[in-house]
Amino acid sequence: SDFNTMSDISGSNKINEIKVEDFSTKHGTNTSHEKPNEFQNDIKLSNAQNGHQRGKVKGVNKMKDKIWLCSVCDAPALKYSSYGGKVCSSCRAFFRRSVQSGYHALFECKLDNMCKIEQDVRKKCQFCRFKSCVRAGMRITLVMSDQERNSKFNKFRRTNRTIIKEETESKQVSITLPSNLYFAFSSEEQIDLYNINIKMASTGSWVQNLLIFDREAAVNLIDYTYGIADLKKASWDTFKRSMSYNFGKYILPRFSEISELSSHDIGQIMNSNSSGIAQCFRSCQLLWMGSELAKRHPHCFVASHIVKISKDPDTMDSLALHDLVSRLDLSKDMADTQMPTYENVYQQTLVGDKHMMEKHREIVNKILRWPRDDNNKFDCWMVGLMTLILAFHSEFYTLIDKEKLEKIQLKYITILQRYLRSKLKPESANTKFLDAMQLIDQTREAWQISGANLV
Prior knowledge:
Layout (H helix, E strand, L loop, with lengths): L6 H4 L3 E2 L4 H8 L8 H7 L4 H20 L1 E2 L19 H13 L24 H10 L10 H10 L9 E2 L6 E2 L12 H14 L5 H8 L1 H11 L7 H19 L11 H9 L4 H9 L16 H10 L2 H6 L3 H5 L15 H6 L6 H16 L10 H12 L10 H22 L2 H27 L3
Antiparallel strand pairs: 1-2, 3-4
Helix pairs in contact: 9-10, 9-11, 10-11, 11-13, 13-19, 13-21, 18-21, 19-20, 20-21
C-alpha cells in the first residue's frame, strides 16, 4: 500500500527545484538542513556585500513562495497549511466535504488503489485522491462539523469565561480547564487505520469470493436478495466458511505483526475453531433484526456488490455471470432488496434451553447496534478494528507465547479507543469503548451457543 511509504508524508510539500546550489557554489555556502548555523555564518561577508547577499536570499525565499505545489495533484498550492497538508484550494475543499459528509469511508478504487492523481484527472478516483490527501499530512480530526465550529468559536466570544482565582495564603493560581477534552487522532494512527481498511478489503468483493468458493450457495444468496428464492441455511453456513477461509488465508498474513509469532501460534489464530469468533462478529453485520435497526446500513451489501460486479465486464466473463445477472432487476432500489434475517439464519435452527436462545438473540442484537456513531450511522472502521481485536484475543487460543499476541491486540485496542474519542462525544466514546470490551466475551458466548445448539 502507498500508505506504508512514510517518506511520502515527510515530503508532502512539493517544490520545484531552485538553483540554491549555484548560489552556494559561488559564495561557498552550505545549504544543508543539518547545519543551518554554518549557512548563516558563511553568508556573513563584508559589510559592503551583506546587503547584496541578503537581497539574493530574500529573492530565493520569494521564489519558493511562488512555486509551492499541491501535494496531491501538483496544482498551485495555498500559501498556508490546510488541515495539516500543503494542498490547493480544490483538494482542500474535496477533503473537507468528504470528511464532513462521511463519504470518505465509502470511497472505492477500481484500479487496485494505484490511480495517478494529477490536476486534469484528480476527480476520476475519489478513493486515491483522498488517500493522497492523508498521505500529504491532512488530518480527518482537524475538519470540524458545523456544530463543532459554532461551538468552538462561540465559546470564546462568551463573557462567562473561567476567572483566575488567587488564593490568599499560597498565592496559587487555579484555572478551570474545559470539561470536554479533544483527542486528536494522529496522522500515524490515521495511516494505520487506512492500512487496516486496505488489508481487510484486499481480497476484493466477498460476494465474488463466495461465487468462487461455492457458486451454488452464492447464487442462492443473490436470488434471495432480489426476492427470487428463499434463503437456505446451508448457503449462510457456506458464506461464513468462505469469510473465515479468506480472512485466514489472504487477510491475516498481510498484518506483519503476526510474523513475530511462532508457527504454532499463527496456526491457532488462522485455523483453530476459535478463529470463527471474529468471523461470527463480521457475519452478523449482514443480518436484519427488525425495523429498529433499519438505518444501520445505507443499503443492502449483497445488492451493492452485485451492481458493482455487473459493471465489470472482465469479472462478468470470468465468472460466467451473464445468465445470473440477466434475471435480476438491478434497477430495483436498494431499500427494496432483502437482507438475511435472524429468523432465516438462527431462530429455526437453534434448539435447547429457551433462556440460551434469548441470550443469543440479545447478543447478536448488541453486535449489530455497536458499530454506529452518534448519528446512528454504520461505521466500517469500527467493524474492522473490532474484528482484529477479536482475532488477536489470546484467551481464545492455546498459545506458546501469549504475551506477544496480547501486545498485538493492545495496539488495535488503543487505536479503537483513540478513534472513538476523536469521533464521538466524550461520554458516548467511553460507553462505546466499554461496550466493545464486553463484546469480546459476549461474541464468544454467541458463537458457542450457535455452535453447540444447532439442529
